[in-house]
Amino acid sequence: MELFLGSFNDTTLIVLIVSAIVSLAVGVYDNPQHGWIEGAAILFAVLLVAIVTATNDFEKESQFQKLNAVKEDVNIQAVRDGKTISINTKELVVGDLVKLNAGDKIPADGILVSGSDVACDQSGLTGESIDVEKGAEDNFLLSGTNVSSGYCTMLVIAVGSRSRYGKLRASLTTESVDTPLQEKLDTLAGQIGNGGMVAAGATFIAMLVVWYYSPEDAHKPTLFEYTLKAFIMAVTIVVVAVPEGTLLSSTPSSLCSYAFVHTYFHHVIDNRSTLGCHVVISFQHSENDG
Prior knowledge:
Blueprint: H1 2-6, H2 11-30, H3 36-72, E1 75-80, E2 83-88, E3 97-101, E4 109-121, H4 123-126, E5 132-133, E6 140-141, E7 146-158, H5 164-172, H6 180-213, H7 223-245, H8 251-267, H9 273-289
Antiparallel strand pairs: 1-2, 1-3, 3-7, 4-5, 4-6, 4-7
């Protein structure tokens, strides 16, 4: 549900939802019997986009979790109740005796109990490039390091988040930071989107001015009808500008935007051939880039 709700955090979808509500209002006003169809179709398209996006995100997250599970699914030899058994590293507890050989990754913090010619590669944890010999003077084995030579038996004293490696991983867990390229693209996308908003607002005002100064005759629409027409024109410009600004990173959103523009282009602004050509060319260019 969280992924589904998060999929609506998209400027294009928000604009389309608002447009669908306006379409429903206008359709019911003009044609109470069939006027709701277009608005309902846009809402259905938005819902479909949200479902597809949430499904894709869920599948990616599930695959990522499976990969992590396989990566951490390691068995090791441990001594319990005087018997040597093979257990998963996730099942280790404090007090277990673990047998390690050269090449093994140490699964928990522990103390060297016995062994021969034991040395550990601690470069991944401490940055030390030289193997550290373990014995009477240094008998502490760090989780996350590797046994580079010898064999030994270790007494587990800390596991999971309480181990040295677990604490290090917790301290390094931060939110992902955008790269400089992503920051520049976000800035550019915002500028294009803002430009589209300004153009939409200017178009809306210009159309109202044209209506105000147009001569009075029997064919002149009412202020309410012309305001709705101007609003739909402005929304069309915004729907075109937002996907272009975001470089059409979301294909379903782009297709949904195109469906909306196509519908209103033929239904309301069919006499604006210049804008229609711009819409088609813009979306064809974006689809080729994608």
